Structures are given as structure tokens and as C-alpha cells.
Amino acid sequence: MWSQHELCTIMELDLGSDRINILMDTGASQEVTLHNIDILNLDLDDVDLIFLSHGHYDHTGGLMGILMRMNRKVPVLAHPEIFAPKLKALPFLNFIGLPFNRAQVEDAGAVMLEPLEPVALAKNVSTTGEVQRIVPFEKLEGFWTIKDNQYRPDTISDDRALVVNIEGKGLVVITGCSHAGIINTIRHAQRVMGVEELYVVIGGFQRMKSAGLGAQAAVSAFLLIDDRYEYGAFFFLQSRHFWEKRLTLGTSTSQSTIATFLLGLKMQPGWWPPGSCQCRPSRWLWTT
Known about the structure:
alpha/beta, 7 helices, 21% helix, 26% strand
């Protein structure tokens, strides 16, 4: 498989009498994404819809290639500002948004669906909609956009997540980068689903990279969420090194399990007591 700075996840959800297959994000380039899909023997004909967590290139760059291979009309769930200009100023001004426009995407087969609010995809499966920014320590810096002909900070309001409620276990929250903040995202998902119990959180926790009191406060909030549940939750991260440093602030009471999100990872959900998650080549198995 080819490694690249990107995220692309395919989820198959068993609904009992039916199944739904969701492609969340499409990687940074069609060459790498399609190559890895082929290596994993995944069939894009099985994909029912595409969900884009936000409009950065490393989550959307493979979209055109995927649409052209699917060669049919496909619902694409996104935020209304998915095509807005997205810029980063360091180390110099750089465009980091979608590498194509709306007309190109729709010509390739995308049926763009762009609501602000949460969308129920199936029973117990929903998008978060636009995530409310409530906690004061999860602040976003370094991103810019052009709006109303003015150069201004980009709050990346299009950052969203998927959430699944597994009965008897709790919420599975799947994030892209968590630019809205991982604590904000978890709490918003709980409000959307009307469920407090947290089972698994998967994806990027980028806002935890911030230094200083912001990161310490975020870790404290993470531990507070963790301590509310008898067995804790399971956290799959795209990048673990900053968590290993931050969680030294108070992991002695943590019940949760933390693991790195790996290239080509296949996950099969199930129940596990603390410490029972086993690592096998190219596969994580949660033992029953």
C-alpha cells in the first residue's frame, strides 16, 4: 500500500435487514486512494453514499477519481462551505482546499447534498451537522479564507463527523481532523443522538496538538469524559505522539484504551473488557 498524508475510510454498517456502506473522505489524490482501494479488494460499487468531513485537500483530493470509477450518480454529503477558499499562511500562503470545483464534481456524478443540520442516514446513524464550538480552550488558528472579498481567519465551520449509536454499548464517533475540537465534537454528537454513553472515537484529534494551557485543558476534559463510564472508551488516533505527552497529565485514573490509526486498518466492532484489544497484521480485532 502507498502511504500519504490523507484520510479515507469505508464503513459497512449492519442495519439488521439491510446494510449501508459509507465512504468517508477520499484521501489526497486519486492515484493513491484508488491504488489502496484495489490493494484492499474494496468494491466501490458497494458504496451507497460519500460523506466529506471538511474541505481540505487531504480529505477530498481523491473524490474525482472515485466518482469517475463509480460512473453513476452518488449522493455526496458536505457542508455548504465545502467549496469555499481554504488557505494556510505558514510557512507561506498556500491553497489547501478542494483541487476542483462544484461543476466538475457534479459532472462526474456527485449529487451534492449540503445541509447545515445533522442528517439521519439510517436508524442510529447520523452526521453531526455543523459542530457547535462551546469549550473555550479549543481555539483554531493558522487557517484563512476569502469571504465577502475580505481575507479573514477561517474557522473551518464545515468540519463535521459521523456518529453511530450501537445499542447497549454507546456512541461511535468518527472524525476527520476535529478542527472543531475533539471535545466539542464528542459533546455535539452526544446532543445530536440524545445518548451520553461513549463507546469508540476514531479519527484525527488535531486540536490536541496545540501547546500550553489549551492542550492541558483539552486533556483534562478528555479524562473527565473518560471517567464517567465504567470501562472507559476506545480511542483510535491518526497521530499518537502528542497524546503520549499530553496524557501524562492524568492518565492514572483513565479507563480508556488508546491506539494508533494505521494505514489499511480493518476494524470489526464488538465488546471488549479493558486491555483485550489485540493487534494483528493489517487488522484490529475487538474480542468478544
